[in-house]
Amino acid sequence: MTKQHTDNIPGLMTADDGAIYCTWHASMPEYHSGEWGRPVADDIRLFEKICLEGFQSGMAWITILRKRENFRAAFDGFDFHRVARYGEEDIARLMADAGIVRNRAKIVSTINNAQRALELIDEAGSLAAWFWQFEPPAKERPEVVTLDYWTANPSSEASTNLSKALKKRGWTYVGPTTIYAFMQAMGLVNDHLTGCACRDRVEAERKAFKRPVQ
């Protein structure tokens, strides 16, 4: 049993272990507490996440999360060096794969973005170095993150700037809202609600994290 609110604070819940978490922890506990918001510098994971956020567009994230292992198998572990070489046979194979979201435009976008990822590496040395330059400064972040803040800010100035920079370089399915979700998940911002047991843990990891540089 879980409570949908803790001390009447929307967006928080008390789990069976007595800890307080963001309410959505109830449906995705391992993802919420083990992954979301932890800073990432691995290029493959960054590429995977931005592609999966593109597939998620118009759908619930939990749908994509449940299919994530299928996506990894279908897209060679999101090794963008391999995906960049995909052709029509691969598109046909993916369109026949019931384990993933069979949306041709999103599949073609993933292949395109893999090719653009290689170009970004030529530009910045790594995807991580390029993405992390868009981390917003602390002064632009709220001291207290509430559910109201979340719902009122589905994107940010930083995600808009990152989205524009990606689109300029030919990336697709990278709108500001999609990119903000990417930034939240990959630790470029810490959007665990204030009061969530994971917030301080994530913030400690972010402080200890060595930002990649170009």
Automatic annotation (TrEMBL):
The lineage of its organism: Bacteria, Pseudomonadati, Pseudomonadota, Betaproteobacteria, Burkholderiales. SUPFAM superfamilies: DNA-glycosylase (SSF48150). This is DNA-3-methyladenine glycosylase I. Pfam families: Adenine_glyco. It comes from Herbaspirillum rhizosphaerae.
